[in-house]
Every structure is written in C-alpha cells, then in structure tokens.
Specification:
single chain, about 220 residues, mainly alpha, Helix Hairpins, 2 domains, globular
C-alpha cells in the first residue's frame, strides 16, 4: 500500500540523520504515556461516534504502534516484519474454523475453542499467577473487571465482605467491587458502560448554555 510505504519513509526520515531530535531521543519505554493517551483518545472518539475524529485518532494510534516497531528495529530487538508475521500466524492459528477444518455452531462454541487454543499455547510455559497477563496500568474499574472474571473462572471465592470497611473510601471501594461483580454476572463491561454514560452526559453538558459567573457575579479587574 502506497500510504503505508509513505509512512515508513516519513518515519525513517524522522529517525534518520538530520531528523527530529525529539523522536531520536525516544526509547520503547518513553513512548508509554503517549501510547496510553492516544488509546484513550480513540475510545473517546468511538464513544462520540465522530467519524472524522475516529479517523484522526486511529491515525495517531497507528503512528505510535509503527513508531514503537521502528524503535525496536533501531535497538535491534525485532522488526515490523516480525510483528506482522507473529500476528498473521496467531490469527490463523486461533481461527481454525476459518482457516482449517474445525467446526463451530455458535458463538459459545467459538469462545470455548478460543480458550482451548490459548490454553494449548501456554501449555509449555511455567505456571503463572492468576493476575499475570492483566495489564497493571489498566484503570482500576477495568482491572477489577478482569480480575473478578478470572476469580470466577478459577472458582476462587474471595471473602470480600470480611474485609474491614471503616472509612468512606473503603466503603465506596467495597460497593464498587460488588457493582463490578454484578456487571460480570450480567456480562456487561463496566468500564464501557460508564464511558458510554459519560459520553451522553458530556454531550448534554456541551449543549447546555452555562453562566460562567453564577449569582450574577462578575470578575473583578
């Protein structure tokens, strides 16, 4: 694709001799905050269902992904080709009902097959903690959601009601845990549910004229 090749050429110019000093100072670690920020901007655009904004923010996120790949090449860790080969191989391996002879009759069977494939992929790896693989930088709401799902799948009951809750913060934390647990039972992603609600409220707020100086107060010189 010409546009992809152009992007690679631009990236090479930025990271090459006479390129952008800021870009050339970056490492794979230093780009973390930018990657997270761009991801949330994509989510906001999706929540708003703004086509132009979605297109722009996906471009920014895509830039960050390719930039990380080019930094990996710079530090001789792996190449963009390696990333794409791994992705293509995994997609084919995890869709034997499309690229192989496996048969699934519904989404439930598809998810069971998916989990079995992932289990086989990890079969030769050492035992891991229950929380391993849950990104530690997830927002607390999303982290709790993933953790509760894993606890339920492993049939591990945490005596959450025995945890002392004295302060308002502790009580709110316990209430949120129970609410997220309810969301898991109803197969509702609480992070997405809250984001969708916030997007609606933001739209209503934006459409509401607000007096910046309530009670007829005016700024003083």
């Amino acid at each position: 694709m010409d546009e992809f090749n152009s992007l690679i050429a631009i990236m090479n110019r930025l990271l090459g001799p006479g390129g952008c000093p800021w870009d050339q100072e970056q490492t794979m670690t230093s780009t973390r905050s930018s990657l997270v920020e761009e991801m949330y901007e994509v989510l906001e655009a999706l929540d708003l269902d703004d086509t132009a904004q979605i297109k722009e923010e996906l471009g920014d996120l895509f830039f960050n992904v390719i930039f990380l790949c080019r930094l990996a090449e710079k530090f001789e860790r792996f190449t963009i080709r390696d990333v794409l080969q791994n992705l293509n191989t995994k997609l084919i391996r995890r869709h034997p009902h499309i690229f192989g002879d496996a048969k699934v009759n519904n989404t439930e069977e598809l998810l069971i097959q998916w989990q079995e494939i992932k289990k086989n992929e990890k079969a030769n790896q050492p035992p891991r903690s229950l929380i391993q693989g849950i990104p530690k930088d997830l927002p607390s709401l999303a982290y709790a959601y993933q953790l509760i799902k894993r606890l339920n799948k492993a049939s591990i009951a945490i005596p959450i009601d025995q945890i002392e809750s004295v302060t308002p913060e502790q009580k709110i934390g316990l209430s949120l845990w129970h609410l997220i647990d309810e969301a898991v039972q109803q197969k509702v992603d609480p992070e997405q549910a809250l984001r969708a609600l916030i997007a609606q409220i933001k739209q209503q707020v934006n459409e509401t004229a607000v007096n910046p100086y309530p009670n007829d107060s005016q700024p003083t010189e």
